[in-house]
Amino acid sequence: QLQLVESGGGLVQAGGSLRLSCAASGRTFSRYGMAWFRQAPGKEREFVSGISWSGGITYVTDSVKGRFTISRDNAKNTVYLQMNSLKPEDTAVYYCAAAYLSTAQRLGVNPIDYWGQGTQVTVSS
Fold first, then answer.
1. What's the rounded Cα separation, in Å, for the pair 118 and 5?
2. Is 22 exposed, middle or buried (0-12, 13-18, 19+ CB in 10 A)?
3. pLDDT, tens digit, for every residue of 68-86?
């Protein structure tokens, strides 16, 4: 079982950067593919980025490609989302998610085993 706790959200001006962190409790973190989703007001939850359980493969959706980078540190049971060149349309609640033995791209379609509580990111214009 995993518990996921996000941190690092906040208010930033357009063009700025934030790094989100997701700390996981549990001894089997390295066996989980990890993902970031986001949900803006009035919109459906959107898959943003994923990293395979092995850490070797990553995926980012087209709207954030070249700006967001996902990484993981299995020794620290933590996954990160580095967000650069932020835009107002990136404003959303960002959720960390875990799926057992999932590959990076499949995290957008596979059932999610665990969700974090979310962290708010607000980008002002």
1. 8
2. buried
3. 999 999 999 999 999 999 9
